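Exam prep: given the inputs below (a chain plus 3-phosphoglyceric acid), describe the expected output before reading on.
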Amino acid sequence: MTSFPTIDDLDPRQRLLVRIDVNAPVEDGVVQDDRRFARHAETIRELLADDHAIALLAHQGRPGRATFVSLEQHAAILADHLGQSVEFVADTYGDEALSSIEHLEHGDVLLLENVRMCEGELPEEEPDVKAETKLVRTLATSFDAYVNDAYATAHRSHASIVGFPLVTDAYAGRVMEQEYRENTAIRDREFDGTVTMILGGTKAEDTIPVVEQLADVVDQFCLGGVIGELFLRADGHDLGYDVDGMDLFDHQWANHSETIERTLEAHRDRLVLPTDLAYEDDDNRVEVLVEGIVKDTSYLDIGSETIDRYTNLVSTSDAVYVKGAVGVFEDERFADGTVAILSTIADTDCFSVVGGGDTAHSIVLYDLDEKDFTRVSIAGGAYVRALTGESLVGIDVLERGGQK
Ligand code: 3PG
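Solution:
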């Protein structure tokens, strides 16, 4: 049972502002994965069946990252999934956008430009502050209601997520409703045997607190990716910092080193760290033992010794949760760790949940079958917060709005 209004509560033929999350991996400016598009297309199709006029609000990447691009190509991908045209306007709430919104007919779909390009969307601030932004105040007056289907961003207190429900009628879309229902906190489930969690990916700050929060219910945390290197750094290895103009490690270390060190100290018995890593040399995958390593390159995957250890642990587990990839799986040479772990889960009769927007993409990329996992979430940070039992601010405001 949900305690917020859903699209089932909407009257037909409304003018709707719908927040979706089609934030995707992008390489050389091109979107690489359409799983989120497919899921949101289902919500949009349902809304179109009720003859609504729909403007979509979404983001892609973060300012300063190579993945921070316009949503023009996203409109075309969405149109393919919907089987109808999706107009795109390179503006979010300026005159051009407002004019396109004004001309929207019932049955039309319009995608507005990347909302993170607008003042007011970032940074995270209290919902009441976000509700006062020009972005929210301007757009809210152009629609009858707001629908939030962006579960994967529900943990961010950004204007497009938390502002609208405080000023206009707000409803949860289907993706929001389903993911909310299905991403049940780990501590609400009971397992007889070992519970393992694989933590990787690049957004270490989302996953660092998870070890402390779940140390009483997860027996072993196997670390890879950026979080793996940061814990190795805390363990005294010459790893876990930026080289070659990277911008992945140092700021996350600066903000979280104390937590990492404290977590390592308190939960060493549950933490499994890589003992070898892989890097690129002369176009080849080369592996090196962590002991005695001097970081002068990017490490792109866990090594074979670590892969054996992690897959053994997975194969004897009753439940396995995955958040984030342990290597740069988009490059086949560095997909060994991620693919070996996911294949072992798929072959093992365990309860399994895989999350992390990019991680779920690896399932498609390496021809694994989603049906071999108990559940695959399209969300990353929101998914991990749901697992730890933390509330999601985007859902809190929908509940608050529902009590208006
Ligand atoms: C995600 O992919 O996890 C969401 O789109 C949120 O993105 P963010 O971590 O950049 O806020």
